[in-house]
Amino acid sequence: MVSPYGCIDLKHDDTIKYYGSEEDTVGIWKVRGIRGATTASDNTKEAIAQAVTELLDAIESRNQFDPEDIVSVTFTATGDLDAIFPAAIARQRPQWDTVPLLDVQQMQVEGSLKRCIRVLIHLNTPLPQKEIYHSYLRDACHLRPDWSLTHASSSVS
Ligand SMILES: O=C(O)C(=O)C[C@]1(C(=O)O)C=C[C@@H](O)C=C1
């Protein structure tokens, strides 16, 4: 189907992409972001590993993607967590060993949530933004109450 907007982009590999309304883009692969956050009970390898595993399990089960389609994953940790890199935990997951991973320290804002691990996944997906599920677990559920039930469009499913 040709987009009513009439904008067709012929790439070098002859792939045709249409740009238009949200309906037009369903089924066309794009890079989307998946957010998540959680808290670790302690600054220990075990507690951080448990929190990261639980968070990535939730994100993977809610979004059903192939790790092969991940562009990159960035974790942030608050300054009170330094026992292990979240990326070191993530890398042990099935098919995650080739995913580009990065850890950075979260900026320190007075009064913000302690022992918090955040994640931002960039993913190639045919799903529209409204079908991307974000996961805010444990004490991090208060950070984005609209997303703590994990649906981007804030509907409960
Ligand atoms: O989404 C989160 O993890 C938040 O804490 C919320 C929020 C925001 O205000 O949007 C704040 C700080 C983070 O760096 C990212 C986003």
Arrangement of strands in the largest sheet: 5-4-6-3-7
Order of helices and strands: EEHEHEHEEE
Question: What is the CATH class name?
Answer: Alpha Beta
- Can you name the CATH architecture? 2-Layer Sandwich
Low-confidence stretches: 1-20, 150-157
Number of strands: 7
Write out the CATH superfamily name. Answer: RutC-like
Total domains, how many? 1
Proportion of β residues?
Answer: 25-35%
* Small molecules held by this entry: prephenic acid
Biggest sheet layout: 5 strands, mixed
Output the radius of gyration.
18 Å
Average pLDDT rating: 85
Catalytic activity: chorismate = prephenate
Pfam families: CM_1
EC number: 5.4.99.5
Protein name: chorismate mutase
Q: In words, what does this structure look like?
A:
This is chorismate mutase. It is a single chain. The protein is of the alpha/beta class and 157 residues long. It has a single domain (29-142), classed as 60s Ribosomal Protein L30, Chain: A (2-Layer Sandwich). The chain is built from 3 helices and 7 strands; from the N terminus they run E-E-H-E-H-E-H-E-E-E. A 5-stranded mixed sheet has the order 5-4-6-3-7. The protein has a two-stranded antiparallel ribbon with strand order 1-2. It starts with 7 loop residues before the first strand and ends in a 21-residue tail after the last strand. The structure holds prephenic acid. Prephenic acid (PRE) is lined by residues 35, 37, 118, 143-144.
